[in-house]
Design a protein that fits this description.
Layout: H1 11-23, H2 27-38, H3 42-49, E1 60-63, H4 73-90, H5 94-97, E2 99-103, E3 107-108, E4 113-114, H6 115-128, E5 133-135, H7 144-152, E6 156-160, E7 169-175, H8 186-195, H9 207-210, E8 216-217, H10 220-230, H11 238-243, E9 248-251, H12 257-267, E10 274-275, H13 277-280, H14 298-311, E11 315-319, E12 326-331, E13 337-339, H15 342-360, E14 371-372, H16 381-389, E15 392-393
Parallel strand pairs: 2-5, 2-6, 5-8, 9-10, 9-11, 14-15
Antiparallel strand pairs: 1-7, 3-4, 6-7, 11-12, 12-13
Helix pairs in contact: 4-6, 4-8
């Protein structure tokens, strides 16, 4: 079908669709758009083309599919071009330091989109500008990306994931040189740069060539080793861990977490957790759960509780699909399960860190240089502990 014959009767919409088809090189998404036009599916087209995804401090998150409001090859290229330009303006040594890109196991066969493909296209954009890219060769948990930024002294990091969203979604998380997700005004600056760089650069589609570039490095093995080495400084009771008889069940909810959680337990010399077999391996269809968010509570943890009952385990750990969220449940004396809230876990982790710090620091005056931070929407239990113990809380 010729672009000139694409008409819906809505001038602005027609223009957006034509521009899209002019730029898009993915036959699957182009075909989806052309079918919608043929069928006169104006409402569906409006949903895809009326407004561009908003780039915020959490980056992007939307359904995979065609159009400027969805995650697809073209919007990934446009977003990365804008981000690359913004980094070029922010870091004069970008070409010396480079960036890292990771991805999870999400995929959407209908539109040809997947986290791995989006990560490759993002790498191609940076490489076309002479920027070194550390692209993981396999799926990783999200924390590997900010860790790599800090560990290698890079300018920025990108993680392609929709975290705990439904299966049709994908996302684009961005980290700054300090290893933290971006804050304002970077989000606005990146958003403006995206709007100024919508036309794909000649080399941006060349993911295959980019993967052969000398500017591309695979940090997977090194970071896997260094990450589990680094977390060991938080292991305060190795001898107790070795002899612990507490039985633990872990689920990765069809995400990337299984192998990495097993490695973390090994790093702490704990007995490996029992894995929920039906949810252990990555599966973009998330067949056993409606929403792959362990914070939804019991519905997501049903299989974990069943395994725990069979094995006599008293603790359940659950990660979301990109393994940067954690839910915990503990079996109570009466046999029922208690699922801790995020606020309760935050308080428990904060209390535990302070208790371990106290055991290692005999200088009571040093507590004045200790800080704990929480988000504005968190409970203030740690503030109460801080007032009693004398450390700072923000």
């Amino acid at each position: 079908m010729e672009n000139g014959s694409l008409t819906t009767g809505d001038t602005e919409l027609d223009q957006a669709v034509r521009q899209w088809l002019q730029y898009d090189k993915n036959p699957k998404t182009a075909s989806m758009v052309q079918d919608m036009v043929k069928e006169g599916a104006v409402e569906a087209l409006k949903k895809c083309f009326s407004s561009r995804m908003e780039f915020g401090t959490a980056g992007l998150r939307a359904a995979m599919g065609p159009g400027i409001s969805c995650m697809n090859d073209l919007t990934i290229i446009q977003t990365t071009q804008g981000f690359c330009r913004y980094l070029e303006d922010s870091f004069k040594n970008l070409k010396e330091r480079g960036v890292v890109i990771g991805y999870d196991a999400r995929a959407h066969p209908a539109s040809g989109g997947s986290s791995k493909r989006f990560a490759s296209l993002a790498a191609a954009v940076f490489i076309s500008r002479g920027v070194p890219v550390h692209l993981f060769s396999d799926i990783t948990p999200t924390p590997f990306v900010p860790f790599t930024v800090s560990h290698l002294g890079l300018c920025a990091g990108i993680m392609v994931t929709a975290s705990h969203n439904p299966k049709q979604d994908n996302g684009y998380k961005v980290y700054w040189e300090n290893g933290a997700q971006i804050v304002s005004p970077h989000d606005k600056g990146i958003s403006t740069a995206i709007e100024e760089n919508l036309e794909p650069w000649p080399e941006s589609w060349n993911a295959e060539d980019a993967l052969k570039s000398p500017l591309l490095k695979d940090p997977y093995q090194d970071i896997h080793t260094q990450y589990f080495k680094a977390i060991q400084k938080h292991c305060h009771h190795r001898e107790i861990n070795k002899s612990s008889e507490v039985k633990i069940v872990h689920t990765s909810v069809h995400g990337v977490g299984h192998a990495f959680v097993q490695s973390a337990f090994k790093a702490f010399e704990l007995h490996p957790p029992y894995a929920v077999e039906e949810q252990k391996d990555p599966d973009p269809d998330f067949p056993t759960v409606k929403y792959p968010n362990p914070e939804e509570g019991e519905g997501v943890l049903t299989l974990s509780f069943a395994l725990a009952e069979r094995e006599g385990a008293t603790v359940v750990l659950a990660n979301d699909p990109d393994a940067d969220r954690l839910a915990i449940a503990e079996k109570q004396e009466g046999g029922q399960w208690r699922v801790f809230s995020g606020n309760e876990l935050g308080a428990l982790l904060g209390w535990w860190m302070f208790r371990c710090w106290k055991q290692q620091n005999s200088d009571t005056g040093a507590v004045k240089s200790l800080y704990m931070l929480s988000s504005t929407v968190s409970s203030k239990i740690l503030r109460a502990i801080a007032l009693k113990e004398g450390f700072h809380f923000e």
